[in-house]
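EI: anyone free to look at a 331-residue chain?
SC: sure, send it
EI:
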Amino acid sequence: MEGENNQSGSIICACCGRADAIDGALVDWLRKDSELGLGVCSSCPEWLDAWDRGYRDVRLHPGSDDVRKAGDRPSLELLIQNASLPSFSHVLLEIYDLLSSDTAGAEQIAQLLQTDAALSARTLKLANSAYYASSREIGTVLQALTRIGPFDLWWLLFTTEVKSLFYGIDQSLMDMEKFWRHSLLVACVSRILAEHHRCGESRELFVAGLVHDIGKLLLLQQIPIEYGALLERSAQGESLIELEQTELGFTHADAGGELLERWKLPPNLVLSVRIHHQESAPLTPQNLVAAADSLAHRMDGMERDDEFVDPEQSIIDASERLYRRLVDLVL
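SC: here you go
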């Protein structure tokens, strides 16, 4: 509430860390949340925008004597520990373990899915979508699993789960449709590269490609103002990775790897995300997503030239065909 004096003795400024009474004088609050014990004092009007976008963690702001001094950078460890991390479905993790072991049948996977009403509903919706449409409507999870296929169903549910966890990111900071289109393209290129070069597990690398930039979403969710400013500078031509390293001390690749590790996804998948900006030769399962990301960016800006044959044209064409098949399902 504008200009309100707090009488409770329990509010701290989320920006500067001031308590609600300084030297006996009450602080004038521009915003406050009594339940959290946080607010924005009249000395910190520059943080009103951050507050109104939902930023609440005082421990990550300059001026918090408990953790940071003015001008310090947020630490990734602190961000991960103190932020309200999105919780990933344990059912999907259990199913992924079954898929990786190749020991479970469709019935066991269906039974797991049926323990989660939301996942069951999404499964039936996907199976009856236009993409999988047939003359017979699918009415059970087992039928849906048979129609779509276990792994394809898993990554589709995985994608919808991740999108729901990061729902509500400010569109002025990130064009989410563009984000997911690029993520899917990297996933498709990763799968085709893996199959073409017989390099790594194509299914796992597809998922790694799909979530290679998930660290950006985590940072936008937790520190939207600071990270949004870096994205703006990057859009003007500066290197995002260099900006992140300089201003934050870590990159979105580091943040994404940390999040996926907390979700207990496979170590090889986590590593692919951590190093997806470290492209190198020769191609290995570890650096394949980095190569796919680079090729996908090139494809995004590619102009057709009938007189020029790209040395990777067969991979580009196959990736585009796969992308066109899947894009409506993901978006």
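EI: The longest strand covers residues 28-33.
SC: 👍
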